[in-house]
UniProtKB/TrEMBL annotation:
This protein's name: H-NS family nucleoid-associated regulatory protein
First-listed, main subcellular location of the protein, grouped into a coarse class: cytoplasm
Stretches assigned to the DNA-binding protein H-NS-like C-terminal domain: 54-103
Keyword field: Coiled coil, Cytoplasm, DNA-binding
Record flagged with keyword Lipid biosynthesis: no
Organism lineage string: Bacteria, Pseudomonadati, Pseudomonadota, Betaproteobacteria, Burkholderiales
Subcellular location: Cytoplasm, Nucleoid
Similarity comment text for this entry: Belongs to the histone-like protein H-NS family.
Coiled coil residues, start to end: 1-28
InterPro entries per the UniProt record, alphabetical: H-NS_C_dom
One Pfam family here: Histone_HNS
Length: 103
């Protein structure tokens, strides 16, 4: 029976062989794809790939902070966009208008 170290060496050798086979197969597949793309006049953009070479970044929010349009005496602020904060809702319920807090 083989020892642990012998089995480990065999496993590493197999993993190296598998990686070499993978690289060879990928090279063949890429060459085949390129040939077919040339034959049929297919471009990367036809396949939905970005052409510029840059990865597209997905910006979630604005790149600059929102401008403060309303501020109360406690220093709480609101840009006027999105849902009204509770302090504005409470002030309106008390009979004030949001213009009373305009900056």
């Amino acid at each position: 029976m083989a020892t642990y170290l012998e089995l480990k060496a065999q496993a590493e050798a197999l993993m190296q062989q598998a990686e070499e086979a993978r690289k060879k197969e990928i090279a063949e597949v890429v060459a085949d794809i390129k040939t077919k793309m040339q034959e049929y006049g297919i471009t990367a953009s036809d396949l939905g790939f970005a052409v510029s070479g840059k990865k597209a970044s997905k910006k979630v929010g604005p790149s600059t902070p929102a401008v403060v349009r309303y501020k109360n005496n406690n220093g709480e602020t609101w840009s006027g966009m999105g849902r009204q904060p509770q302090w504005i809702k409470d002030a309106i319920a008390e009979g004030k208008s949001k213009e009373d807090f305009a900056v």
